[in-house]
């Protein structure tokens, strides 16, 4: 094995990590989420555009607002998680580019001036960041339960009424509860995914 | 610090890792890429759809075919990298669902029967996997140089002539060369990215 990452870390992030479907009754603090963010913020986006935004749904009121927009199969686990993150793309991420990309501040008013360009690039890069975030949750010793099954327009109207963000993924976060994991599903063999030219 | 991942691993994946813009003259083997894949394949996708495909561009002939479609600023570093991965979405990922998701093999012919649905879901999930892949490269002790600046249609015609895959991201892979890294650009503060409700 030539991988630099030690085997325990490989297990924590990849090999032994599973999507959790139930959660223990143990809180996840904002401080833990800050530690996750302070790690994953360094992972790359194009032009350092950093378009991901994270809405941490914790209070019973906010949770009720979210759960009604989840698909039926995702409601019990979302209700039962101590914390749920709504990951979204900031469609006006370009406003921060002058500070995020000091070597090319002009991109804000040239390449990223068009809303359509921003939405395409922002969505792609925020989705890369969603991948980093899921692994960051695991790095914190927590289980992640990412879910695509929700009413995107409903969530957007509920939480992003100003139209400046669009939801991408909802992620339950916590310590795994009873019977949290499904059996591991098969993965594709290397030869079917990777081709060398 | 309550993060479970040890500080050296945090540095390797996030804190000390940088996008590389030059590469050392040292090969990256298929065996190394296999080790990366055997780790990152476990990270989650919706319904375990696993739509990411990885084309490893190594030979001088394949490299020349790729470089012509890169934006001008990305050509020298792509030419100079020992290995470059074209990350793409398999638009027919649903064909593998019966083996990937034994608990719901019917999704292939219901939810994922429509090409438009497949492209939207496949692109999103393959992009999550692209995020995992970038961190997997770093986990292997290699530097990644992800690039969005390329002619997507050109790459697709060149490498995916059957129309069954669409390119998402091109990633140079290798040991960093001289002056490989730009100074770290600023990141957004926690308060500007994360909101607790």
Automatic annotation (TrEMBL), chains A, B:
Its EC number is 1.1.1.298. InterPro entries: Nitroreductase, Nitroreductase-like, Nitroreductase_HadB/RutE, RutE-like. The keyword Flavoprotein applies. Pfam families: Nitroreductase. It is an enzyme of class 1 (oxidoreductase). Keywords: Flavoprotein, FMN, NADP, Oxidoreductase. Residues 18-175 form the Nitroreductase domain. GO terms for molecular function: 3-hydroxypropionate dehydrogenase (NADP+) activity. This is Malonic semialdehyde reductase. It comes from Streptomyces ovatisporus. The lineage of its organism: Bacteria, Bacillati, Actinomycetota, Actinomycetes, Kitasatosporales.
């Amino acid at each position: 094995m030539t991988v630099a990452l030690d085997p325990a870390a490989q297990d924590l992030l990849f090999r032994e990590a599973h999507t959790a479907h139930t959660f223990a009754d143990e809180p996840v603090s904002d401080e833990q989420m800050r530690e996750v963010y302070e790690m994953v913020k360094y992972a790359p986006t194009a032009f350092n555009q950093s378009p991901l935004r994270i809405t941490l749904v914790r209070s019973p009121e906010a949770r009720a607002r979210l759960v009604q927009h989840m698909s039926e199969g995702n409601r019990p686990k979302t209700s039962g998680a101590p914390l749920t993150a709504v990951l979204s793309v900031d469609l006006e991420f370009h406003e921060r580019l002058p500070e995020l990309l000091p070597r090319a501040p002009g991109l804000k008013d040239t390449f990223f001036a068009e809303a359509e360009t921003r939405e395409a690039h922002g969505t792609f890069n925020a989705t890369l960041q969603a991948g980093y975030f899921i692994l960051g949750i695991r790095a914190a010793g927590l289980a992640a339960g990412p879910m695509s099954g929700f009413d995107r327009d409903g969530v957007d109207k509920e939480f992003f009424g100003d139209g400046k963000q669009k939801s991408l993924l909802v992620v339950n976060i916590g310590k795994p509860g009873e019977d949290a994991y499904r059996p591991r599903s098969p993965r594709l063999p290397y030869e079917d995914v990777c081709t060398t030219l």
